[in-house]
Amino acid sequence: MEIIAQFQHFALLDGVALSVFLILWLAATLLIEHAPASRPSVSQAMDVYRRAWMDVVRKRPDRIVDASIVTNLRQGTAFFASTTLLTIGAGLTLIGNTEQLTGVATDLSVRSAPEFVWEVKLIVILLVVVNAFLKFVWSHRLFGYASVLIAAIPKDHDHPHSQARADAAGAIIVTASRNFNRGIRAIYFALASAAWFIGPLPLIAASLVSFAVLYRREFISASREVLLRELKEEALK
Questions:
Q1: Dist. CA 202–CA 27, nearest whole Å
Q2: pLDDT 10s digits, 50-70
Q3: Measured in whole angstroms, how far is the alpha carbon of residue 124 from the centre of its chain?
Q4: Which residues, including other chains, have CB under 8 Å from residue 120's CB and lie 6 or more apart?
Q5: Of 75, 99, 111, whose CA–CA distance to 196 is shortest?
Q6: Cβ of 32: how many Cβ atoms within 10 Å?
Q7: Residue 185 and residue 98: Cα distance in Å, rounded?
Q8: How many CB atoms lie within 10 A of CB 102?
Q9: Residue 99 pLDDT level (bands cut at 50, 70, 90)
Q10: Do the beta carbons of residue 189 and residue 21 sit within 8 Å?
Q11: How far apart are CA 154 and CA 60, in angstroms?
Q12: What is the pLDDT of residue 100?
């Protein structure tokens, strides 16, 4: 009951801001991963290329380049996983030492608040970063599965299991990439959630900015036009 009573230090606007933050985070994921076929996202276009990559691998006897690509993808996920793990450790340290945050708030002329408020805001950031960490770890593991599947594709592309294993490898790589992208989006919104330290309105503004940046890169960027132009040309052949 005492903990519940502590939440009275939060205003109604804080609840609204946190709801907007969560809704925009979920909306970004749904919009990017389930965009209509008439207006696909960059992530969806890349999924097509990933599956096409595995079809090329099936017909290629020398797969040293493909193994190198998968290794590079795993290194990327490992880097982000280790970075988020360090962030989690730093956040846990801050939870036990919120006096530093109070000092920073004073320097920024931000309204002072009880330690419980700072701790809750820190926990929200940590939960978002933990979500990113779990996505990166799972993505790293899936890329490992994909490397095994690539190795299991028979060099003879007429082999009865060749197409099935290539399709399986493509599906695993798509899933691994999807989890990696979810981890990246979580980092975007983890940065946005830090604005809550200043106040609920900055949290709303930062969430909108994160959503807008993600939307632009997935639906309005020059890279999207390049990817879709290539796919359209292939469809016309």
A1: 19
A2: 999 999 998 888 888 998 999
A3: 16
A4: 7, 10
A5: 111
A6: 22
A7: 27
A8: 15
A9: low
A10: yes
A11: 10
A12: 60
Exposure class string for 35-47: b at 16+ Cβ within 10 A, else e: beeeebbbbbbbb
pLDDT, tens digit, for every residue of 148-193? 999 999 988 788 888 999 999 999 999 999 999 999 999 999 999 9
Task: Provide the CA 129 distance to its chain's centre, in angstroms.
Answer: 10
Are 146 and 70 within 8 A, CB to CB? yes
Contact partners, residue 171, CB within 8 Å, separation at least 6: 51
Q: Which residue has the tokens 């700072």?
A: 118
Question: How many angstroms separate the CA atoms of 168 and 217, rounded?
Answer: 29
**Cα three-residue angle 213-218-221, rounded to 5 degrees:** 85
The stretches of the chain forming alpha helices (DSSP H) are 2-6, 12-33, 42-58, 64-95, 99-107, 115-152, 162-193, 200-219, 222-236
CA angle 197, 203, 209 (to 5 degrees): 135
- Name the residue among 47, 63, 46, 48 with its Cα closest to residue 150: 63
Give the side-chain half-sphere CA count within 13 A for 231. 21
Q: Tell whether the model's pLDDT for residue 3 goes beyond 70.
A: no
pTM score: 0.89
Cα Rg of the chain (Å, integer)? 22
Residue 36, Ramachandran bin (φ over 0: left; ψ between -120 and 50: alpha; else beta)? beta
